[in-house]
Give the backbone structure.
Amino acid sequence: MQDALDLARRHGWWYRKAEDHTGAAQLYCRRDSEEHCFFPIFGTGKSPGGPARSLKRKVRTCTHRIEEEEPKIEQAERLLSGADRLIAAAESLLHRARLHERVDEALAEAEELETIARATELLEVAEANVVRIDELIERADEWDMEATAAGRDARETLAAEGVETEDPNVPVDAAEEVIREAEAVLDEVPRRLERVADLRNTANLLRGRISVVRTEIASTTRS
Ligand SMILES: [Zn+2]
């Protein structure tokens, strides 16, 4: 029950003793309005668990105090957009790693073709290989430039979030932490609010992106 009372206190609920002889007390979600939720507090804790649960539910579903909850919703929003940027940075780092792999493959193939071209006495093969080698090197250059741009994007985003790393695991771990923090904040605001439902949905989508990134990290480092 202490938990539930703490939750109510954090949400600004009021405590008032009844003015009759019963000595009973009630909690109110707000003081200065006719429209409010209330919750009776029984001195004897007859059914442990039950009242605590229903008080928590009342606190969380109360929509009378929306203005007061606004800063929390905004905080969750900020946290989630930070998580979004961290995941985007991890995605850029992965993109860069994959492009570097392709560059290495193209250069290895070019080298092999060059060896064949040098060994062959057939002019036709030698010429065809030279054309293909030029193509491969041109493509490798393009991928290399794209990789550099992706790395720069990641670095800038991470610097803005106060993280310095080349390892995509780091921003992904940080994003997961931030999402948990945002969800803890959302646990404290009324669930019925549409914006809260949207933010919870956003958190789930971000988690989905994280699991894709994690799978790709595993497959990139394996090769
Ligand atoms: Zn209320």
Helices lie at 2-10, 50-61, 66-119, 123-160, 169-186, 194-222.
